[in-house]
Specification:
355 residues, 0% strand, globular, 72% helix, mainly alpha
Length: 355
């Protein structure tokens, strides 16, 4: 019980640093969901060449979708005529960043790490997409009969919603639906981070793996097959870095972990082909290592303890309240409390049809 209590305390400390930025990220995610629907993305990515790949990488960076959540979007893009290159670009840039994880990265690892992560996601997505277009040339066929579903009521007929409906939908997606998708992974990441912080002695990784390329390859091998969301990976990486992992090694885990998992690999092989799958894995692996080495070079001799936990400018009371809100929402979602949301959505649809 003493050990369990200590682990939970360490996990809650991590949560307190992340919580304010998570709440802000969930809010912006709701705004993006309403005003930046995936049907618009499909419209812009439905051609071959450089521009759709560029747009896919650019659009993917702020969207709060994990490596599993992005799969249905990518399969939809592909069915609507998007090129393999655009799909692969979107598939890499989206789960490796997201507005919620960007703010959470800032809270634990500082502004430089957050910006570096965004740039890495964009560059790698762009590179993999262009490389796929070179080796996977294909004719373009646009589906002009594509229907756009409303993000509020799911209707396809042209209509409008009041400002109140849009605000409700924003909060419903950001603080209900998105919490359902990511809450359990955030809690799991916090728990793993707490376990690492408690059990792993100081300098363990540095002593046995070093701070060079070997530790990065180990992180890459560990990260590729497992599922971890962009936000849930942050407390794990922060805990590992505090125990001696180099910034480059932490970056490799932060980047490769959210970008890949066994399910995503299987789906890519089926919908985009083996050649695209090979480019996908090589792009992530090579980019992770090279960008990790670059980060170590830029980082220099700055102590990790001076970088991690950058959210201390906020009052403890604010961080505590935000942490309790995140914890409550996540635990409530695990109990299935948000199943009532679906009934609410159906009620909105029914009231719209009666108008």
């Amino acid at each position: 019980m003493v050990i369990l209590k200590a682990i939970l305390i360490e996990s809650f400390k991590l949560l307190m640093e992340m919580a304010p930025w998570l709440l802000l990220g969930f809010f912006f995610a709701g705004v993006i969901h309403i005003f930046f629907p995936k049907e618009k993305i499909t419209h812009h990515l439905g051609r071959g060449g450089f521009l759709p790949v560029f747009k896919a990488a650019l659009f993917g960076v702020p969207l709060p979708l994990c490596s599993c959540g992005v799969i249905p979007v990518v399969t939809s893009l592909r069915k609507q005529g998007a090129s393999r290159g655009a799909c692969l670009s979107f598939l890499i840039s989206t789960p490796t960043s997201g507005v919620d994880s960007i703010l959470a990265t800032y809270s634990l690892l500082g502004p430089f790490f957050a910006v570096y992560r965004v740039i890495a996601s964009f560059i790698t997505g762009l590179f993999s997409g262009l490389l796929t277009n070179i080796f996977e040339k294909e004719p373009y066929k646009q589906n002009r009969n594509m229907e756009e579903n409303c993000n509020i009521c799911d209707e396809t007929n042209p209509h409008t919603h009041s400002v109140i409906d849009k605000i409700k939908a924003m909060f419903s997606y950001g603080f209900i639906e998105l919490v359902e998708d990511t809450g359990k992974w955030i809690l799991l990441g916090l728990l793993v981070g707490g376990i690492i912080t408690y059990f792993m002695p100081e300098g363990f990784i540095e002593r046995y793996l070093g701070r060079g390329i070997l530790s990065m390859f180990v992180m890459l091998i560990v990260a590729i097959p497992i599922y971890v969301c962009a936000t849930g990976s942050i407390p794990i990486a922060a805990a590992l870095m505090l125990k001696g992992l180099s910034p480059g090694g932490g970056f490799v885990f932060l980047f490769a972990g959210p970008a890949t998992n066994a399910v995503t690999i299987t789906v890519i092989g089926k919908y985009l082909g083996r050649k695209a799958l090979t480019i996908y894995l090589l792009s992530i692996g090579i980019a992770s290592i090279l960008l990790g080495l670059l980060l170590n070079g830029i980082w220099g001799d700055v102590e990790i303890s001076k970088i991690v936990m950058q959210g201390k400018m906020l009052p403890v009371s604010v961080k505590l309240i935000c942490a309790l809100i995140i914890l409550g929402l996540s635990l409530y979602s695990l109990r299935g409390g948000f199943k009532l949301r679906k009934e609410g959505v159906e009620a909105v649809k029914l009231s719209y049809k009666k108008m």
